[in-house]
Amino acid sequence: MSRTAAVALGSNLGDRAAHLAYAVARLKSLLSDVAVSTFIENPPEHGVPGPSFLNGVLVGRTDLSARTLLAILLEIEQERGRERREAGAPRTLDLDLVLLGDLVLDEPGLQVPHPRFRTRTFVLGPLAEVAPALTDPMTGGSIETLFTKLSR
Fold first, then answer.
1. Are β-strands 53-62 and 32-36 bridged in parallel, bridged antiparallel, or unpaired?
2. How far is CA 88 from the centre of its chain?
3. Residues 53/12, Cβ–Cβ less than 8 Å
4. Residues catalogued as catalytic
5. How far apart are CA 81 and CA 76, in angstroms?
6. Is 30 helix (H, G, I), strand (E, B) or coil?
7. pTM of whole model > 0.90?
């Protein structure tokens, strides 16, 4: 069963653009009909000290389960040297599964939709660029509508 997956991409350590390009290339080999947003520069969330992030979103079609896709995202992060020392720490690569079709899932270590994507302009803006009509299964709102409301 093919579903649309939305993955948020971020990096604030090392060659940020190269880390994101690597993730995009790896995900293009696993997903079909891939669209990638423009990458945007953002400060770390909540005033956490550290270098600025380069963020974007990738959207594509997949038959993979949420758990399998998450495992692949974590593997790609590790391939680029991601270390998980503490929450909010700078990182070479951060890949978040934002949406997977109309799936709503809340399991240990995996929530779909991503629990904070509706409050993040650095996710909603790029997502609205490449998939404005995509729908949030929790609210029923389109990505474009969610981004417009958040941007006010």
1. antiparallel
2. 16
3. yes
4. 82, 91, 94, 96
5. 9
6. coil
7. yes
Q: Which of 48, 54, 62, 52 is nearest to 6 (CA)?
A: 62
**CATH architecture group of domain 3-115:** 2-Layer Sandwich (3.30)
DSSP 38: P
Residue in the block written with tokens 């629990």: 115
Residue pointed to by tokens 């399998």: 68
First-last CA distance in the chain? 37
Q: How far apart are CA 88 and CA 75, in angstroms?
A: 19
**DSSP code of residue 86:** S
Write out the two tokens for 120. 């993040």
Confidence of residue 16 (pLDDT cuts 50, 70, 90): very high
Could you tell me the pLDDT band of residue 87, with boundaries at 50, 70 and 90? Answer: low
86 pLDDT band, cuts 50/70/90, is: low
Enumerate the domain spans of the chain.
3-115
Instruction: From 6, 3, 23, 11, select the one nearest 92 (Cα to Cα).
Output: 11
CA gap 62, 30 in Å, rounded: 8
Bridge pairing between strands 53-62 and 110-112: unpaired
| 7 pLDDT above the threshold of 80 | yes
* Sole residue written with tokens 């951060």: 94
Element (H, E) at 124: helix 121-130
